[in-house]
Amino acid sequence: MSLKLGVNIDHIATLRQARREVFPDPVDAAAVCLSTGADYIVVHLRKDARHINEKDLAHLCKYFPGKIHLECSVAPQMEKAALKYKPYSVCLVPEEPGEVTTTGGLKFTPAVIKRVAQMIEHLHKKHILVSLFISPEPADIRLAAKLGADIVELCTRDYSEATSAAEARKLLQDLALATLLAKELGLEVHAGHGLDYHNVLAVADLGGISCMNIGFAIVTRALFAGLPTAVSEMKGLL
Hints:
The protein is an alpha/beta fold. The protein has one domain (4-237): Alpha-Beta Barrel (TIM Barrel), CATH 3.20.20. It is 49% helix and 16% strand. The protein has helices spanning 10-19, 26-35, 54-63, 76-85, 110-125, 138-147, 157-160, 165-184, 200-204, 216-225, 227-237, and strands spanning 4-8, 40-44, 68-72, 89-92, 129-134, 151-155, 188-192, 211-214. Strands 1-2-3-4-5-6-7-8 form an 8-stranded parallel barrel, surrounded by 8 helices. Helix 5 (110-125) links the parallel strand 4 (89-92) and strand 5. The protein is globular and about 45 Å long. It starts with a strand and ends with a helix. The mean pLDDT is 96.
């Protein structure tokens, strides 16, 4: 059975924002992705709204109910947006000022743990599934289960940036063990960050992961092959 594919369309909005235009519209991109192999549409609503904005989120949740997976920080304004527009699921991610992209999993300080627990409770009341973006560390997986998360998304950044075959094998083993533990604790397992057409197969072959969330590689492939081809090629690998 093939894995599910969540296509992150943030960089469709990045292109729009580069010219401060009204196109390309993320809604159009979502329609193409869903018709050519994507199972979910992933968007990251950041505090600075540098690509996806609240209007985009509102339209996407309206036109594609049950298909929108929102990534956001634990900031109160992000929680407010999630509760207002009610995506299918929300992935809580760390967010640092000025970062180019998410740099790793959540760091579970006491303050973060408190906010995560609050957001899980509030989102569950609206029947929204909650995912936590975490490093493949046993302690973080156990905490995610204790906090009541439905899903963990294992950060594959280190694997995707491995500089040797030996390092990649070690990091794949870490992902495999993390997946086993998460499944034993009743969590659904997703994976993402830095995955592309060359490195995704090894992660897909681990077993136990139900969904891959991939964006940048697909959007850049689309520049040369077209979005339908880029999505269908990635889905074919999974």
